[in-house]
Design brief:
- The chain is α+β, with helices and mostly antiparallel strands and 81 residues long.
- The chain has three helices and two strands, in the order ββααα.
- It has helices spanning 26-35, 43-56, 62-75; strands at residues 5-14, 19-25.
- It has a two-stranded antiparallel ribbon.
- α1 (26-35) runs antiparallel to α2.
- It holds the Pfam family DUF982.
- This is DUF982 domain-containing protein.
């Protein structure tokens, strides 16, 4: 497994206080998707998690995973745009 780096970080608001986190790679994204996700289990959440795992194993480009993460974060209303 490898860390797949995004071309641009994804800013998300997390926690009760809405702290901003900048996710720069698939490992950070997987950690957020598996432990602190508001809308876990939705199709976009599952798609983002799958894409990040596939990017970590080298099956897809990191920015494909990034796009899936952005869509899931937008759906969960945590994307900082």
């Amino acid at each position: 497994m490898q860390t797949a780096w995004f071309s641009k970080p994804v800013a998300v608001s997390v926690g009760v206080t809405g702290s901003i986190r900048h996710l720069s790679n698939t490992q950070q994204a997987i950690e957020l998707l598996t432990t602190h996700w508001r809308d876990a289990g939705s199709p976009k959440h599952q798609s983002a998690l799958r894409a990040c795992r596939r990017a970590t194993s080298g099956e897809v480009a990191a920015d494909i995973a990034r796009s899936a993460l952005v869509e899931a974060a937008r759906e969960a209303h945590i994307l900082v745009e």
